[in-house]
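anyone seen this seq b4? input:
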Amino acid sequence: MSPPCPQWDPPRGHQDEANQGTWEPLGTSAAGVGGRRWPWRGLSSTVSPRSPPRAPPLVQPRCLRQSALAPLPQTKMEGPALLQVWVLAAVALGGSWATLPDHHVLPDHRVSSETGAVFVHELEQELFQEAFFDGHEDDDVAAPITFHAHLRDHPDLPRWLRYIQRDPHQPGYLYGCPTATEVGTHTIEVLAYNRHTYGTASQRLIITITPAPDGEPPYQGEFLVGNRNVEELLPAAVQETFLQVTAGVWERDDLRVINITSALDRGGRVPLPIEGRKEGVYVKVGSWGTFSPCLVSAASPQSRFRCSLGQQPLASCYDTFAPRFAIHWCNLTLVWPSPTAPGPVWGSGVLEEEGNFQPPTEAPPQDLLPGYLVTLLVPLAVAALLCLLLGHLMCCRREGVAKRDLATSDIQLVHHTTIHGDTEELRHMAGSRDVPRPLSTLPMFNVRTGQRINPMPGSSDGARVPLLSQ
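predicted toks r here
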């Protein structure tokens, strides 16, 4: 940090003795102090060369000049003023495209498509280049354009429609396969950005989906093209070439492209940034005729088993698509028409002139007694049988004392009888005991003399009787 500068006051104007004028900075006329030339100007009279000004230069010292590293003074904005600034910014940014100074609105474009067929619309850059051209750009160098598309009043495209643009210098494509639930009109808003001038151009694409008169083809086959990206198969010329090659394998001429999907949308991996590596494209083709034997053999369970082992499937049409289209035959999928059962025939709902309405008859009364008896008697019968079985085991299966004694040896019986008799005799003697109690059971007992003292106090004071005799 630089040392603080002393306080400096600018000098007042110098009064000329002869002319009584005030010197102020104006141009460079005379030499000042230190060989510098200092400006001065007389306010009331001309300058006399005899009296050069002695006033110091009206130049702020270096220490008082604003440094580039010094912080700028911070100004605080009040709450209402800050809110007003935010409101003005929101209003400016929320204006419509038509109010932008460099925005162009192209006329609406209407297209139509049928269900069961692929829909492809190319966003041509030449059309938007003409809208961006203002007479100052070079005609030979086309500005890169980035497209953004979404459904009107919605932030994204409908679920059946996809958008792809690989590079700002390439056109964008809207493609998809509408189904029967998408029949109607869809308004797509397309916004183009000029990457050089930041200009914008908008166009509304009105897509009308109509049901196919013949319906969807019942026989459909899906091929995985491994050497192409999705935008390379979207042009109509490339699709026609693919159908011609497929017609030779399918052996049919009524083929049509139903859908085109990138392999990345099916869970495929992003290819490495190596020349010749492509993401892969699934192309679904439909026909009203059955499949050829070559396609059937390629999608058979035997071919699937060979594919799981890393071998080629059982098909004789490998080289038909080469070298323009590299087909992964292990990913071939064939969709056969499902047999439909005849549905109920609905009538007009109006009775005939002489017909009478026959209401359904009432249900006949049912006899619930058998069911009640079965529900009640069966558990009771089972419980009775269990009681009889338990009683037989507990009462009728007893051996008895006589039978048990006959099965026991005499020595064991005598031994048990002796024990039983001795036990009874001891119990009888204990019940009629008249012998003195053992000395050890008395409360006061002299171990040396064997004298015992009555614990019950008599006429004399028992507390004074010594425990041990002298």
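The two ends are 114 Å apart (CA to CA). The longest strand covers residues 184-194. kinda curious what u guys think
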